[in-house]
């Protein structure tokens, strides 16, 4: 049952247009999967984020941060309570040799702002799907670079709704991980410390990385990007390929023929089909090579009853 008292408080904090009721989350995830959220809230200021967190605590309503849905699978039963998406917090600005980006901005657009200002250090991010907040959450990386290489500080809201400014080292950034989830932080803003460089050289690196990504990754179908972390000493995609799994399909979900590390939503897959295929890949690789593939993608929400 949707609680109208909570709905009224949410629209008082932000506005009616920023609170969607029973909103299908497959509209908001890169995989195009997922059931409905009781309330999908899209705040426009840091203060609104803070107040919504405080409301969820006070009313004891479940609270979930969706990010921009790039590295996420939402189950078919959807998510109860308040689901927050920060895509409206998307400003990017440059201050000297630092680029300051709000969490809902795309990390790709942040790397382009750095290029336009002749700043080097964010080239690796030019092909990473997802938001700045999500990039910090998982210390996103590609082609030898990662967020921890250039992040100076972050502004976050903690689980009590307080706004904090933290140095990068306080986030414990490591391979595809951070302490952001453990501490209940919501990233509002990131400051990247970069260096002046040559525009043409920076652009050449970014063009090369973009070509590599577009030629190797199955961008023609919805997906969550790389499904698995790289196991020590191996490449996930190669293990999956060598297990004969490329092209394997459960329902509408398929192990990509273009890059075995990706699972694509080829034909109106359900989240259940997608998750079953992930487990099948994990079990097969474990059986053939004795290697446990760890998921990079998050799975949240409830199963259909």
From TrEMBL:
| Any Pfam family matching the protein | MurB_C
Q: Which GO terms describe its biological process?
A: cell division; cell wall organization; peptidoglycan biosynthetic process; regulation of cell shape
Where does the record say this protein resides?
Cytoplasm
The record, for InterPro entries, names: FAD-bd_PCMH, FAD-bd_PCMH-like_sf, FAD-bd_PCMH_sub1, FAD-bd_PCMH_sub2, MurB, MurB_C, MurB_C_sf, Oxid_FAD_bind_N
Where it mainly occurs, coarsely classed, is cytoplasm
As cofactor, the record names:
FAD
- Which Gene3D superfamilies does its entry note? 3.30.465.10, UDP-N-acetylenolpyruvoylglucosamine reductase, C-terminal domain (3.90.78.10), Uridine Diphospho-n-acetylenolpyruvylglucosamine Reductase, domain 2 (3.30.43.10)
Q: Give the signal peptide range.
A: none
Q: Which residues form the FAD-binding PCMH-type domain?
A: 32-197
Q: Which reaction does it catalyse?
A: UDP-N-acetyl-alpha-D-muramate + NADP(+) = UDP-N-acetyl-3-O-(1-carboxyvinyl)-alpha-D-glucosamine + NADPH + H(+)
Main function: Cell wall formation.
Which HAMAP family does UniProt cross-reference here?
Answer: MurB
Annotated protein name in UniProt: UDP-N-acetylenolpyruvoylglucosamine reductase
- The source organism is Ornithinibacillus hominis
